[in-house]
Amino acid sequence: MTKQREAYDRDPDATDLVIRPDRLWQRHMDFARFGGTEDGGVCRLALTEPDLAAHRHLADIALGLGLRVQLDPVGNMYLRLEGREPDLAPVMVGSHCDSQPTGGRFDGIYGVLAGLEAIETMVEGGFVPRRPVECVIWNNEEGSRFAPGCLGSSVFAGLTPLETALAVADEEGCLLGEAVQDLFAAIPEAERRALGTPVAAFLEAHIEQGPVLEAEGRRIGVVTGVQGYRRTEVTMVGRADHSGTTPRSRRQDAFLAAMNLCCRMEQALHDDEDLLRFTVGRFAVHPNAWSVVPGKVVFGIDIRHPDTATLEHSDAVIAGLIRDRADGCAVTSRTIASSDPVTFPPLVPDLIEVAAAQRGYSARRIFSGAGHDARNMSFHCPSGMIFVPCRGGISHNSMEYAEPEDLAAGAQVLADVVWQLAEAR
Amino acid sequence: MTKQREAYDRDPDATDLVIRPDRLWQRHMDFARFGGTEDGGVCRLALTEPDLAAHRHLADIALGLGLRVQLDPVGNMYLRLEGREPDLAPVMVGSHCDSQPTGGRFDGIYGVLAGLEAIETMVEGGFVPRRPVECVIWNNEEGSRFAPGCLGSSVFAGLTPLETALAVADEEGCLLGEAVQDLFAAIPEAERRALGTPVAAFLEAHIEQGPVLEAEGRRIGVVTGVQGYRRTEVTMVGRADHSGTTPRSRRQDAFLAAMNLCCRMEQALHDDEDLLRFTVGRFAVHPNAWSVVPGKVVFGIDIRHPDTATLEHSDAVIAGLIRDRADGCAVTSRTIASSDPVTFPPLVPDLIEVAAAQRGYSARRIFSGAGHDARNMSFHCPSGMIFVPCRGGISHNSMEYAEPEDLAAGAQVLADVVWQLAEAR
């Protein structure tokens, strides 16, 4: 109560809210031990032991700061700093602490630790915000254990029914609903809370996972939206034949047909402005033997762009090529996943841009190439993201690295914007 | 002795030597049960239980016919019909009874059963040849359990040292030398015999495993040689990047680089006469994930041609393209396997052609696209092969099928030629 009373007497000026870069960096190193791998990376799949341990450690820090710890039915965890007017919708910050199997030390956990740093700075400095501030750890963002990703935020924002999410099984047949019980058991003192509660605004700090900020020497990316994507699985069926005995003229070579199709797709989707991302990341040849002409190829096309019309046009181009260029093979395709681009409303991006300028950080507006929980939250409340550079743009890789000064700059801007939003009338 | 004396009194005219098509077909159906699969195919890896059982059954038939059963140190089995002049080098016929994991009912075993049918017909008809006639079951032709294939005939012909072959391990770490002991144990009454003994001539009957004979309506392929091959493994290393965040201009996409390289190889190796066989049968993308630009691709090129000079030219073309078209990736290549073409000396092919004509079978000369034990034996003695059509050219597949009449025609020509060779002065 002393601190709260003291805070009432202060002028809540965000310039006094200075985060501690050393603590922020040390926390990253501490959390890298949960699921740490020999090559310096992290394997912390959603709700596995290392992920539960990371949640437990976050809850311990929060309880030590006097925050409330809450869990919702889909396994999202909230660390809540009560506001002067606790009935107001909170400002929410956060990200996720699960990782890819070959993850790094910054993807996801940075947004959580930056949010926690902002709150801890407020607590230490006696800043009591008007609105509550919540640091959220969204469940199962990566989708490596339970597909698809961003499930926790999707359920919170009402985009996926709770029952659907809880019924998703991992490769061992364990349901998300069962794994969430493990989380409840790991943090028995957590309060239960509801999904879809009102939120004043949502902010997510994240490493860029791309090369642009580093290449341009910027500290802060003011994220204006998240590009959309289409994932299409193409199956080409020819005929498996003996590679030594079957003349070219009698072959139905699914590999050559798929290769020619991919070549034509790449040419047809070439854009001079280099905004369209065309990737064939999955490609499987059957039976994959030296002496057998491939009878079947299954490959996956991932296309991303900030603009829905371009995505739809690309879909049509691909469908046309599939129709025309099967080279004697039977070809089928199906959409595996699809997500339209989202542009954040200007409120949060504008505040981020101003805060970065006030702190003297070089910033630029940037569209997110990767998907994030903030995309889901943008359907629920004003949302935005802060990017910081990562070395070489490398992510989902044990080599992932971000400079301590860049992490600190992003956390500082986050703290400044959260404070403004939490104080705003 | 009665039969032998009777035979001495006969005019050994091959036209009297008429094989029994019904027995030959029934034997194929009987042997398909050793390792038979639910889809009608055969999985009979070298010296596994089903292969040992097939050897045992062959030995039983041979012993019932009064043949000698012999095993050599590398696990080749010989069913020997003694000749009137038993010290002469024998005429040898045969093939193998092991199969691919997804094998059919005719590959290999046909050459064994056709050879046995020829011998059984001689025994039943009281034909006693001047030279001994041996039906050989070469060990480990397919190479699916112990790599490489054609090991038994290679050791017999002195192309591979015995110790090298016996030291080859399967995937479970079992050595060929250990597995051969299982064969010795399965057929305890077999005599032991030496490797590399003199052979007057070797004949192998086999399904074509290609589409030519069927398409042209021919019953008999007079095999004039076995084409050579080169297997090259190419590794392209780019950089794994996030597919959503990395602009095209910053990518080192190993998949696109490999695709472009394969396209150019296919174009550069196009021959109007359709003799060169260019196959990319193996192709693996790493890490093979939707949202990761492939950082590495490993693929395998299999090239075959009847002519050594063309193979060497193709090797040079491929090496040149690999050098020039890496598209920013690091590329390495290595030769995995190499085999020069073999042309059989005219003795055996000419006899086959004449015998087919005398029986009224439509025949054509044909080069073998696949490798066979007869290739190895051609370094040891005059050798040749008889091909019969198989449906759709399909082999190494449970759908493999050959018409009873075609199998009978091939076995009849085999019997005729063996008799002539065995009688020849």
Automatic annotation (TrEMBL), chains A, B:
Species lineage: Bacteria, Pseudomonadati, Pseudomonadota, Alphaproteobacteria, Rhodobacterales
Presence of keyword Nucleotide-binding: no
CDD domains per the UniProt record, alphabetical: M20_bAS (cd03884)
Entries under PANTHER family matching the protein: ALLANTOATE AMIDOHYDROLASE, ALLANTOATE DEIMINASE-RELATED
Gene3D superfamilies with a match to the protein in the record: 3.30.70.360, Zn peptidases
Protein name per its UniProtKB record: M20 family metallo-hydrolase
Keywords, comma-separated and alphabetical: Hydrolase
Superkingdom classification of source: Bacteria
InterPro entries named among the record's database cross-references: Amidase_Cbmase, Bact_exopeptidase_dim_dom, Peptidase_M20
Database matches in Pfam families: Peptidase_M20 (PF01546)
Family: Belongs to the peptidase M20 family.
Keyword Iron-sulfur: no
Coiled-coil boundaries: none
